[in-house]
Amino acid sequence: MDRLVGLNALLQLWVFGLGAVVGSFLNVVIHRLPLGLSVNQPRRSFCPHCKTQLAASDNLPIVSWLLLRGRCRHCKAEISPRYLLVEVLCGLLFLTVYRLDHGDLAQWREWLGVLICHWVLVCLLVAGSFIDAKHYILPHEITLGGTALGLLGSALVPQLMQREVWWHSLLQSLGSAAAAMGGLWLVVEMGKLAFGRRRERFEKPVAFKVSQPDERAQPQIELDGEVTAWDEVFCRDSDRLILRCLSCRVNAEDFGGGEWQLGDAGLTCRAGVHQGRSWTLDQISCLEAEVSEVVIPREAMGFGDVLWLMMIGSFLGWQAVLFTVFAASILGTLIAGGSRLLAGEASWGQKLPFGPYLAAGALIWLFWGPGLWQSYLSLMAR
């Protein structure tokens, strides 16, 4: 008995180590994929500061970061704690999934197949969450590629959908993915109609300015002293910023007050003496105004979140989709709302990634969801 306990402990240690090794690779994906870099060329990891390729001894998951105290051996630049966090997190998630999915050895093929599929899902959730948290994007390589892996896993391992026949499982996975995509897409579009704009009025006129310090960088928008990147305000091609101005100066020429519309298509006077006058963005070298009111486009969720939930549905089924959206909404409200209260009111153009909250909801379902679902059904049956 003691020998079996010892072997099980060693196996769990191996599973944690496997997760840490996979986490080390995910760090490469998280760093390179949003930048358009190949994840396998160069094959060996390199310092993001001095670009020196790392020796094998400096690339050991968890251990190397701790021994080097989070700094590059060559240039001494600080290496982000994210690298350590991802490796530890993947190790813990791999171990947790193993402990929960560990089934009857007599059916080892089935539980091993489900285990591998869940490990793949964990990898996708971790990589996508960290990319979304930093870059506010969910790459198609993860969302669409992950959906394909979920469908393939459901066909090869019907037990993933708790089915016995492969095509039953595949149809359920496909239906769950489609329902997730269609349902959340409808929510996003309805949300844009209902909450897609935010109006701010000022007791006294405030300064508004669009500038581009570097020709290679995107323009910056300054409102009452707060600077926001252009793409944080204009997330979609259809987004428009409405300005009610006491004065508006385009290329140092004053065009007086009125209502002006700004977006990717350019600047247009919607009401006032110069109504109908317009400029494209490349015709504007300087834009300044004194504004009394602004109507700001607001993006609650993007289409990347829709594809993200579709991927989750392909692995976990339609019940998980409902639970994930519900749990993510609660987590987002509590965490984002709480951080705003602690740090003060968020800036007028600030974006908050929703992908990590959806990932957290999916992990909660993966670990405890079926039991929670059965409890809910039992409660509703009373």
How would you sum up this structure, described in words?
With 382 residues, this protein is of the alpha+beta class. Among the domains are: 144-196 and 300-374, no CATH class; 197-297, no CATH class. Helix content is 53%, strand content 16%. It has ten helices and nine strands. The protein has helices at residues 2-32, 63-67, 82-101, 108-135, 140-156, 166-195, 230-233, 303-316, 318-343, 355-381, and strands spanning 197-211, 220-223, 226-229, 240-250, 253-254, 258-263, 266-271, 278-279, 287-297. Strands 1, 2, 3, 4, 5, 6, 7, 8 and 9 form a nine-stranded antiparallel beta sheet that branches. Helix 5 runs parallel beside helix 8 (303-316). It is globular and about 85 Å long. The two termini are 44 Å apart. The model has no long low-confidence stretch (mean pLDDT 84).
Helix-strand layout with pairing:
Layout: H1 2-32, H2 63-67, H3 82-101, H4 108-135, H5 140-156, H6 166-195, E1 197-211, E2 220-223, E3 226-229, H7 230-233, E4 240-250, E5 253-254, E6 258-263, E7 266-271, E8 278-279, E9 287-297, H8 303-316, H9 318-343, H10 355-381
Antiparallel strand pairs: 1-2, 1-9, 2-3, 4-5, 4-6, 4-9, 6-7, 7-8
